[in-house]
Every structure is written in C-alpha cells, then in structure tokens.
C-alpha cells in the first residue's frame, strides 16, 4: 500500500469518527431540571372552642332531701350528662324564700351564669327583679306565673301524681280517713290535696281527707308532728306536699301507710310505702338548655308538663296493692297521656256544696291555677281564704 493510500484511509477513519460523535450528540434528549418541591400549605389555625354555657340552680332545700330538691338536682345531672363540656352547672342549696334569694340569684349572674333556674314559688319576685337588671341572662322560674323578655316559667302537673296516689289510698284505707301534710297554702298545693281526694273518691265515694299545714316546704320536725297528729286523728293513709321523707318515716314508725312525694322514697319506709308520685325534671331541663345553646330560647312563655310529656309518674307500687287498682292506675296514665281522661271534670263541688264545675265541664289551666277552696270530702278551710 502506498503512502498516499494510507493517508486516505486514516483521513476516512477520522471523518467517520467525527460523524458518529456528531450523530450521538444530536440524539441525546435534554432532561428537565428537577422541580423545586411545592411549598406545603400553611396549617389553618384551629377554630376557637366556644366557652361552655354556665348554668346555675337555686334550691330551696338540701339536695339530700329525698324529694323536691333531690328531683331537681337529678335534672341538673341529666343536663350535664346530655351536653358534656358544652355546659358547666352549679347550684346553691337551702336558699330561703326571702330577700336572701335575691342576693344569691344576683351573685349567680355576677359570677357568669347565663341561664339561672329558681326552683320554688317564693323566688318569683326576686328573680323578676334581677332579670330586669341583667338583660343578658336568661331566667327560668319553677311554679310561678310572672314572666319577662328574659324570664319564663315552668311547672309540672303534680296533681296528676296526687290523683293516682289517691286512687291507691282510697282502696287501701281501712278507716276511710286520709291525712295530708300541707306545706304552703298556695293554689298548687290546694290543687294537689283536692286531686288526691278526687282520686280516692273515685274508688271510695265516702272517703274524707284531713289536712294539717306546716307552712314550710322543708321542715322534718314539723312534718313529723303533723303526720303524728293526723294518725292520732284517725287517718290510716298519709299523703304529703312537703319536701322531706318525714311523713313516710312517721307512718312507718306508727304502723300506717303513706306515699313518697317528688322522688321515689321507698327506702325511707319500705313497710309503710304504698307508692311514690315522682317528678322527672330532666326532659324539661334538657329542652331548655338545648334552646339556650342553639339560640332558640325565648322569654315571656310558660310550660306545664305532666304524664303526657314524661314529667310525672307514680312508681314502686307496694306488692299488696290489688291488681285491679294497679290496672286502674295504668288506665289513668294512658288516658292522661293521650288526652282521653280528665281528672278535673264536672260535676265537682267544694266542701260547702258550691258548684265548682258543672256536669261534663273540663277545667282549663286558668281554673286549675286559681284553686283556693277544698273539694267535697276535704275537711276545714284553706288558710287565708
């Protein structure tokens, strides 16, 4: 091979290598630079938790009275269980129906309570006064009738429980004489005494009722004295419209029969106990608090709940109560619940013979709220009437 041929071959090889390198460079795809990581979204601040609604209860008696105040405090506990940390509840017990009530209720508002329940008739005027001074607080008054834009009333139809107790008493009494220990002679209590008597007369038309007043809601010694006097006067079945278990305990000691009132009092006198007419405040308290939490609470209104709403019942009937009487109680409950039975339906007269309700006339709530006289069969006169 000549030198010229060698040089031609070397030149051809060099050109081929250059072409291959050029083609390889043209075939390479440029890779995009990795994208910077996206900034993480800013964490949203947690929503501020609403402050719990502060609710206060003023009680006329001790929470351990086994009756009226005990029943209200069970209602308070039902509220706490229902709403959990959305509410904070508190109470002051043994608040007298006097000027001291205004001080306690005013202190409740000053300490941040936005919903206040006053659980006895005598708190009406003090609550109304404080309500006028603290418009941002809601007030609920039990058993009263005065209202305001930020105050309303509520009550239970205790006379329904009294009537059912009367049905049992009329059947179980051997002497035909019943005894009632009355607290304060206001229409509510007069209505209960009368309804108890009407219930007894429905099974024993000849029954009569004696009443001893103690003029207090909670005073066990006075209640004991009154119960003793009634038994010594011939009563063998006792009923009460007072807040302690003293009447039932007295009946137990003296070998007579009696009823629990407001709460189940069986344990205080198991041998004497015939039944307990009880109040369940839980449903109303839960409804009221729910309305306050939801911004739906309104003043200038009143509620009066009974068997129909689950607020009133008679429980723990004694084993020796006849089956026919138990059946009658069930019928009364069913009738009160569906509206087919009325306790206060004429003809009804007072104990002087004056007509209160004509035949077939059913009493309205205005009539029931203003009762000041005894029905036929109740001895004596209502104090102050």
Topology:
Layout: H1 3-26, E1 53-58, H2 68-83, E2 87-92, H3 99-110, E3 115-118, H4 124-133, E4 138-142, E5 151-156, H5 158-172, E6 177-182, H6 187-201, E7 208-213, H7 220-232, E8 237-240, H8 246-254, E9 257-262, E10 273-279, H9 282-293, E11 302-305, E12 312-315, H10 323-338, E13 348-349, E14 355-357, H11 365-368
Parallel strand pairs: 1-2, 1-3, 3-4, 4-5, 5-11, 6-7, 6-8, 8-9, 9-10
Antiparallel strand pairs: 10-12, 13-14
Features:
385 residues; alpha/beta; Rossmann fold; 2 domains; six-stranded parallel beta sheet; six-stranded mixed beta sheet; 11 helices; 14 strands; 18% strand; disordered N terminus
Which descriptor suits the 3D outline?
globular
- Mean pLDDT reading: 90
> How do the helices and strands follow one another from N- to C-terminus?
HEHEHEHEEHEHEHEHEEHEEHEEH
Over the alpha carbons, how many angstroms does the gyration radius reach? 38 Å
Which CATH architecture of the largest domain? 3-Layer(aba) Sandwich
How do the strands of the widest beta sheet line up side by side?
2-1-3-4-5-11
CATH class of the largest domain: Alpha Beta
Tell me the structural class: alpha/beta
Oligomer: single chain
The biggest sheet amounts to:
6 strands, parallel
Distance between the termini: 153 Å
For this structure, the CATH topology of the largest domain is: Rossmann fold
According to CATH, the homologous superfamily of the largest domain is Response regulator
Q: In total, how many domains does the architecture comprise?
A: 2
Strand content: 15-25%
* Fraction in helix: 25-40%
């Amino acid at each position: 091979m000549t030198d010229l041929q060698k040089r031609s071959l070397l030149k051809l090889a060099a050109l081929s290598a250059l072409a291959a390198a050029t083609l390889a460079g043209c075939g390479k795809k440029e890779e995009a630079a990795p994208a910077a990581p996206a900034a993480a979204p800013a964490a949203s601040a947690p929503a501020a938790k609403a402050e719990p609604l502060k609710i206060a209860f003023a009680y006329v008696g001790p929470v351990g009275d086994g009756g009226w105040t005990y029943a209200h405090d069970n209602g308070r506990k039902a509220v706490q269980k229902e709403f959990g940390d959305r509410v904070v509840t508190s109470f002051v017990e043994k608040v007298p129906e006097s000027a001291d009530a205004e001080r306690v209720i005013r202190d409740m508002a000053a300490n941040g309570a936005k919903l206040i329940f006053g659980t006895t008739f005598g708190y009406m005027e003090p609550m109304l006064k404080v309500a006028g001074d603290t418009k941002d607080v809601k007030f609920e008054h039990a058993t009263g009738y005065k209202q305001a834009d930020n105050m309303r009333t509520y009550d239970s139809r205790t006379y329904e429980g009294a009537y059912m107790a009367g049905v049992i008493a009329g059947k179980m009494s051997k002497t035909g004489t019943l005894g009632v220990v009355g607290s304060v002679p206001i229409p509510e209590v007069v209505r209960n005494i009368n309804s108890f008597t009407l219930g007894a007369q429905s099974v024993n038309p000849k029954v009569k009722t004696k009443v001893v007043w103690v003029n207090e809601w909670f005073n066990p010694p006075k209640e004991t004295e009154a119960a003793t006097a009634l038994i010594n006067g011939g009563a063998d079945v006792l009923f009460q419209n007072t807040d302690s278990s003293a009447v039932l305990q007295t009946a137990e000691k003296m070998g007579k029969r009696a009823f629990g009132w407001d709460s189940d009092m069986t344990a205080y006198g198991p041998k004497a106990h015939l039944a307990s007419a009880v109040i369940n405040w839980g449903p109303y308290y839960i409804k009221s608090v729910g309305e306050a939490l939801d911004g739906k609470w309104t003043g200038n209104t009143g509620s009066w709940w009974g068997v129909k709403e689950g607020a009133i019942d008679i429980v723990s009937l004694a084993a020796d109560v006849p089956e026919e009487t138990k059946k009658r109680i069930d019928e009364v409950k069913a009738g009160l619940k569906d509206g087919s039975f009325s306790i206060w339906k004429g003809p009804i007269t007072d104990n002087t013979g004056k007509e209160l309700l004509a035949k077939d006339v059913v009493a309205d709530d205005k009539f029931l709220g203003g009762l000041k006289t005894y029905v036929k069969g109740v001895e004596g006169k209502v104090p102050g009437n």
